[in-house]
């Protein structure tokens, strides 16, 4: 990550305010957190303790870096600090002397190779992330608790952001995370990738978590950037590993197809300044055709295995409609609306209904879609979901109801957590206001 590294070095060499230091620390943290947790979990065989100690390393950085400047290798500093705390814990726990010596030697070896810690996540770390996910997806934890815990540990989302992702109260998510960590700590669950029947029990949750990780990378819930490519890449790598572990599981192939097809648009999704470009406005020449072919092959494999009606395969089929359209006007919106209807029959979700409304609007007109969206506005789960007023604003704009559209886009911007998305919605509100003035 040369550009990011250069930014850190420049910041470290210049005087910085506490606010500047904190922003830099959090930017580093978002990248390094999964690596820290997986390394400590491997040492300690205790996932919740590993997360606690990485949080201590973050606090140490927040205390020291504003005064001393950002280290030349910030990821290495965090890793060394977290591992020192892990060793302190092992000493206090009176681990066997031989095991203690081995771990201490391992830490010294890693510290001598600190520059490698600032490179992109490698295949070994990818396997460790997958092992961490399988551990935290133990059947003793509820499905909801597993997903919330993974988003906290791997994506670095706050409790508030996770609550927004699940359309649930923050207190509910906080309780789930606390209970999940307590269960993992008290049960002595092994930190390993299970096999056989045990793997099958956890697979659906693992697939869900991998997709949640991809989604956070695809459209970040917070921060300065709309995309977090390292999370997308990790999710894709884990998806590929999963299809090799369970080659006859159609949903694994369906998930991989969905991620490959979505990721194929990455180069076209932002401009040179990192501002979002909506799908209908994207330069399709920038879509990665090799990745599209890989996605279509994975989707074909899911269908061959009898999984055409699976939740991931259906979503992949929707994205395939976009990928196969040469231009935006060639998109088969009626087909997409039908696929969303099939998906809604498999899993009940107001977000699926909202996406179907977008497709219906493109296929049948904004008036028809607006009826669906207005009905969805009464859904309690969508009360704080910024894309509901955003979609409504777009439909109102198409109907020439510009002042109402402006208000809807303003409401959406107020709910958006990501700075880039907030700015996009404010621009759309301003455009609607200009149209209202000139009409």
TrEMBL record:
Chain ranges of the DUF6596 domain: 202-302
Gene3D superfamilies referenced in this protein's UniProt entry, alphabetically: 1.10.1740.10, Winged helix-like DNA-binding domain superfamily/Winged helix DNA-binding domain
Domain RNA polymerase sigma factor 70 region 4 type per the UniProt entry, residue ranges: 133-184
Domain RNA polymerase sigma-70 region, first and last residues per copy: 33-94
InterPro entries associated with the record: DUF6596, RNA_pol_sigma-70_dom, RNA_pol_sigma70_r2, RNA_pol_sigma70_r4_t2, RNA_pol_sigma_r2, RNA_pol_sigma_r3/r4-like, WH-like_DNA-bd_sf
Biological-process GO terms, alphabetical: DNA-templated transcription initiation
A GO molecular function held by the record: DNA binding
Pfam families associated with the record: DUF6596, Sigma70_r2, Sigma70_r4_2
PANTHER family in alphabetical order: BLL0085 PROTEIN (PTHR47756:SF1), BLL6612 PROTEIN-RELATED (PTHR47756)
The protein's name in its UniProt record: RNA polymerase subunit sigma-24
């Amino acid at each position: 990550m040369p550009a990011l590294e250069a930014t850190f070095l420049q910041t470290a060499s210049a005087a910085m305010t506490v606010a500047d230091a904190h922003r830099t620390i959090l930017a580093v943290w978002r990248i390094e957190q999964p690596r820290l947790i997986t390394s400590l979990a491997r040492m300690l065989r205790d996932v919740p303790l590993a997360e606690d100690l990485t949080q201590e390393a973050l606090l140490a950085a927040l205390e020291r870096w504003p005064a001393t400047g950002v280290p030349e290798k910030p990821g290495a500093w965090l890793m060394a600090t977290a591992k020192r705390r892990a060793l302190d814990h092992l000493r206090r726990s009176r681990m066997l002397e031989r095991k203690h010596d081995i771990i201490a030697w391992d830490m010294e070896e890693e510290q001598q190779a600190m520059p490698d810690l600032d490179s992109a996540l490698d295949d070994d770390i990818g396997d460790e992330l997958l092992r961490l996910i399988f551990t935290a997806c133990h059947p003793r934890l509820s499905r909801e608790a597993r997903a919330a815990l993974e988003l906290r540990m791997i994506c670095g989302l706050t409790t508030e952001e996770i609550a927004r992702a699940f359309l649930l109260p923050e207190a509910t998510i906080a309780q789930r995370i606390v209970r999940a960590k307590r269960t993992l700590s008290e049960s002595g669950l092994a930190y390993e990738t299970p096999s056989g029947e045990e793997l099958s029990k956890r697979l659906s949750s693992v697939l869900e978590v991998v997709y949640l990780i991809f989604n956070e990378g695809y459209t970040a819930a917070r921060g300065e950037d709309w995309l977090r490519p390292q999370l997308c890449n990790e999710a894709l790598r884990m998806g590929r590993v999963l299809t090799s572990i369970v080659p006859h599981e159609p949903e694994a192939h369906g998930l991989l197809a969905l991620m490959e097809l979505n990721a194929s648009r990455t180069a076209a999704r932002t401009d040179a300044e990192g501002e979002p470009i909506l799908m209908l406005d994207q330069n399709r020449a920038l879509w990665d055709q090799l990745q599209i072919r890989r996605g279509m092959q994975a989707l074909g494999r899911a269908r061959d295995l009898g999984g055409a009606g699976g939740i991931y395969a259906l979503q992949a089929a929707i994205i395939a409609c976009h990928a196969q359209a040469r231009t935006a006007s060639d998109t088969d919106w009626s087909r997409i609306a039908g696929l969303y209807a099939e998906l809604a029959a498999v899993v009940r979700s107001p977000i699926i209904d909202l996406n179907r409304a977008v497709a219906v609007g493109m296929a049948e007109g904004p008036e028809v879609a607006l009826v669906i969206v207005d009905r969805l506005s009464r859904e309690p789960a969508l009360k704080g979901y910024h894309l509901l007023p955003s979609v409504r604003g777009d439909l109102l704009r198409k109907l020439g109801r510009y002042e109402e559209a402006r208000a809807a886009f303003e409401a959406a911007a107020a709910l958006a957590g990501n700075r880039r998305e907030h700015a996009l919605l404010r621009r759309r509100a301003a455009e609607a206001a200009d149209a209202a003035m000139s009409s």
